Amino acid sequence: MSTTAPAPSLAVSRLAYAYPDGHQALFGVDLTVGRGERVALLGPNGAGKTTLVLHLNGILEAGAGTVEIAGLPVGKEHLAEIRRRVGIVFQDPDDQLFMPTVREDVAFGPASAGLRGDALDERVTEALTRVGMADFADRPPHHLSFGQRRRVAVATVLAMRPEILVLDEPSSNLDPASRRELADILRSLDVTVLMVTHDLPYALELCPRSVVLSGGVIVADGTTQQLLCDEELMRTHRLELPFGFDPRSVDIPL
């Protein structure tokens, strides 16, 4: 008896998009991310990374091509379910945290989707526990450190039990301890992760695979270590490692 393999978390096929002013941001992007993969999306400023991400939950509508999340086409008819399946954690956690307490922020999404009572409380506790912030549930978010607020922002997305977690520059503005804590959390999650970042050592640490988007097309797709060791690729697409950092010296993440 044959079994059908599950659909990948993300399947982008020949995606093209031009903004209303005529600027063509994407030129036929193809990208597949399997369930449970952690993939870094790398590229210079203006490469089209944000435009691609905004297609994943229907904020932008494809000019050509298709986007599917776990087999479900991204489109107006499935928008509510798509936005549950695709959790985006913005670079600035203050863009996501707006309720009086941490608990209310994390509860907002599931409550809006109809969850109530004990089921809602359990969902909130589960999400906060996964990011190590359960003891801060009744604190106002603005009383937390920046790193703590970023972890709460991740919890607001995890509370929706997404198919894919999209992180926009997750390590930016974090002190070394907060950076390490967030890395440990991200490694422990059992969701698909797409991480948009200019922090190449962080990508190497967390994502076995990376994709380079440049000029609206994918120019490289391979192991993160392999790509970061390709000096010509890095130079051509304005990707720079910190001075003295050797990607060959880092153990490949599991």
Automatic annotation (TrEMBL):
Cell membrane recorded as keyword: yes
Protein keywords: ATP-binding, Cell membrane, Membrane, Nucleotide-binding, Translocase, Transport
Transmembrane segments: none
Membrane topology: Peripheral membrane protein
Gene Ontology CC annotations of this record: ATP-binding cassette (ABC) transporter complex
GO biological process, one term: cobalt ion transport
GO molecular function: ATP binding; ATP hydrolysis activity; ATPase-coupled transmembrane transporter activity
Primary localization class, coarse: membrane
UniProt-annotated location(s): Cell membrane
Keyword Nucleotide-binding: yes
Domain ABC transporter: 10-240
Classification via SMART domains: AAA (SM00382)
One matching Pfam family: ABC_tran
Superkingdom classification of source: Bacteria
Protein family according to the UniProt entry: Belongs to the ABC transporter superfamily.
NCBIfam families named in the record: cbiO
Biological role stated in the UniProt entry: Probably part of an ABC transporter complex. Responsible for energy coupling to the transport system.
Stated name of the protein: ABC transporter ATP-binding protein
